[in-house]
Design brief:
Elements (H helix, E strand, L loop, with lengths): L1 H21 L1 H7 L3 E2 L5 E7 L43 E7 H12 L13 E11 L9 H15 L18 E10 L2 E9 L6 H21 L2 E9 L3 E4 L1 H6 L8 H15 L5 E9 L6 H15 L5 E7 L8 H8 L21 E6 L5 H9 L4
Parallel strand pairs: 6-7, 6-9, 9-10, 10-11
Antiparallel strand pairs: 1-2, 2-3, 4-5, 7-8
Helix pairs in contact: 3-5, 7-8
């Protein structure tokens, strides 16, 4: 029975995954993901699937055995009004782990697994149960092996009675799990999110950033065991903020993009050595910058400071009615070998420019293709 239930449950999960995969572009566009605080799960709204459950009821009566007279409406005697004729849209929220969600994203977008770079000097220590021994704490007693030893002893001594099969372990029968410490290399990654919060970045632009950042975070966490996220906002000045502030802040003023790149450089130099950390930077802006001089300063920071040490630097330009949208063209001119939304370049260690990836997001429908652009090379 348990095996049959498990098979039904796995079949149900496959149906859910198929529904999510079929509607993935819609989820990306509409943001229909309800995060649960403190858990690595999200609730996915799925239409027209009934959760397999046991249903209990009173079997004493039969059809038509309830109260009321023949011909009364189903809602009860004297009920008024008529039922509608349109079918209902039943929405079920299904909990899906972030790992499953990332796998669905990879299958649908055909994303390759990321190959971590660097020496990976960071290790974690964990206990691995490797055998059984005769001494140990009671919390690690192996009950099955203890029972087996007692049974073998009683059979050998002729004390085992088939008519009254009682097995009583003694001290020398007890067996305990043994363990050893295992050092496991751990590939860590840091993600630095940067966002322009000047007056030209409105609520719609920030919502596009929030949705894309969620999926970026989901995919990278599937590829690395340890992830740290840092958040930088900027107008003419840049500062580090927490996640909640990053997605809710409302500011005004001009834009100096180099302020964010300078703060990002200082943050990486101070906390994240390139030999120990895989580094991903993502900058979201409407492409409006203060001056040509600052554009040149940004290109210099990228060429000399940021691109040589990162796995990938992603620049995502969101459409705005107020921004000039010129900064993405500045990047394309400064780094002709960068990957764009029309092509994907392979990582070339001798050319840091290939680690720059640019993408345009004019509306929510573009998020799907933007994610494929950012991670299609498997950096």
């Amino acid at each position: 029975m348990v095996s049959r239930i498990e098979q039904d449950f796995q079949r149900f999960r496959q149906i859910v995954k198929g529904k999510i995969r079929h509607d993935l572009r819609k989820f990306l566009q509409r943001g229909e993901l309800i995060g649960k605080e403190g858990h690595r799960y999200v609730s996915i709204p799925v239409h027209d699937i009934d959760i397999p459950t046991f249903r209990y009821g009173d079997n004493a009566g039969g059809v038509g055995m309830g109260e009321g007279e023949e011909g009364d409406p189903a809602a009860g005697k004297g009920a008024k009004g008529q039922g509608g004729e349109e079918p209902g849209k039943h929405i079920l929220e299904v909990d899906v782990s972030m790992e499953e969600l990332a796998d669905i994203l990879a299958e649908e977008l055909q994303l390759p697994r990321i190959q971590p770079r660097g020496q990976h000097n960071i290790t974690t220590v964990r206990d691995k149960y490797s055998g059984v021994r005769q001494t140990g704490p009671e919390s690690l007693r192996h009950f099955k092996r203890t029972y087996r030893e007692a049974l073998k002893r009683q059979i050998a001594l002729g004390d085992y009675n088939l008519e009254d099969p009682i097995v009583i372990p003694i001290k020398r029968d007890r067996r305990y799990r043994s363990w050893k410490e295992v050092r496991k290399p751990q590939s860590n990654a840091v993600i630095v999110y940067m966002m322009d919060v000047s007056g030209s970045m409105g609520d719609e632009q920030k919502e596009l950033v929030r949705l894309e950042a969620f999926w970026i975070d989901t995919w990278l966490r599937r590829n690395y065991e340890g992830i740290e996220s840092r958040f930088i906002v900027h107008d003419v000045h840049a500062r580090e903020v927490d996640r909640e502030t990053f997605f809710s802040i409302r500011e005004d003023g001009g834009t100096r993009i180099s302020s964010a790149y300078t703060l990002c450089r200082d943050l990486l130099n101070e906390r994240y050595p390139p030999d120990d950390w895989n580094t991903y930077c993502f900058h979201f802006s409407d492409g409006d910058n203060s001056s040509e001089a600052d554009n040149r300063a940004c290109a210099k920071l990228l060429q000399e400071e940021l691109l040589p040490r990162v796995n990938e630097f992603g620049y995502c330009q969101v459409a705005s009615s107020y921004g000039s949208g010129n900064f993405i063209n500045v990047l394309h001119e400064a780094f002709p070998t960068c990957a764009t939304d029309k092509r994907t370049a392979k990582d070339d260690p001798s050319d840091p420019g290939t680690r720059l990836v640019t993408s345009r997001v004019n509306n929510r429908d573009d998020i799907y293709d933007s994610l494929r652009t950012f991670f299609g090379a498997g950096r």
